[in-house]
Amino acid sequence: MKTTVIIGGSRGIGKATALNELKKNKVVIISRTSPDFTHENLIHIACDILNDNLPDLESVDSLIYCPGSINLKPFIRFEIEDFKNDYEINFLGAVRAIKKYLPFLKQSMHPSILLFSTVATKLGMPFHASIASAKSAVEGLVKSLAAEFSPTIRINAIAPTVTDTDLASRLLLRNDRMKEQMKERHPLKKYLNPEEIAVMASFLISEEASSMSGQIFQMDCGITTFRV
Questions:
Q1: Helix, strand or coil for residue 37?
Q2: pLDDT at res. 69
Q3: Cis before residue 151, ω within 30 degrees of 0?
Q4: What are the b/e assignments for 71-103, b being 16+ CB within 10 Å?
Q5: DSSP designation for 192
Q6: Among 58, 170, 180, 222, which lies 20 to 30 A Cα-Cα from 187?
Q7: pLDDT(224) > 80
Q8: Are 191 and 171 in contact (CB under 8 A)?
Q9: Could you give phi then psi for residue 211, rounded to 5 degrees?
Q10: What fold is seen in the domain 3-219?
């Protein structure tokens, strides 16, 4: 049984991925808040990725970094600290996690890393200057490390569109009207739920995806790809 380490796995996409991975693997969740579920193959370690030292682990076969932010406002209202904070959460946190667990991953038979980007890096969107910049750095990291770590460690990223998480529900999906408007913006007339991203995440870290590395997978409901 393999060990999947999920940074920020207590809520949203991380939680859905943890639940999916627990069907066949051991899961270590590293997060500030405790998950609201238990399992015999689940370990939770309380840790603030930005401020605490990450724990040593016995083994790491796959590393998934989930923490992110939705910081949307006009550019004129952004402070330099906003850009720094988004970069810290989305990019530097991932770098810290990879640096910490790289020696453990090198000991695995089929190691893999999965990060998260956003459709806003491909589709110019107003008010997204900070988060799109931070996630663009994530995409650059994925491509660079895929080349550097090959053929031993694979690394990919998922770039989702709006996803029905607690974070999005406070900003983009606050009521039924906003939900319907969001569906209409997408050619497939839907937005994402965490469970379908979890399926993709589990696939990308599995041996079934052994030929895929350095890729940014758009889960965009068509919004960056086509118009109908």
A1: coil
A2: 87
A3: yes
A4: bbeeeeebeeebbebbbbbbbebbebbbebbbe
A5: B
A6: 170
A7: yes
A8: no
A9: -95, 5
A10: Rossmann fold (3.40.50)
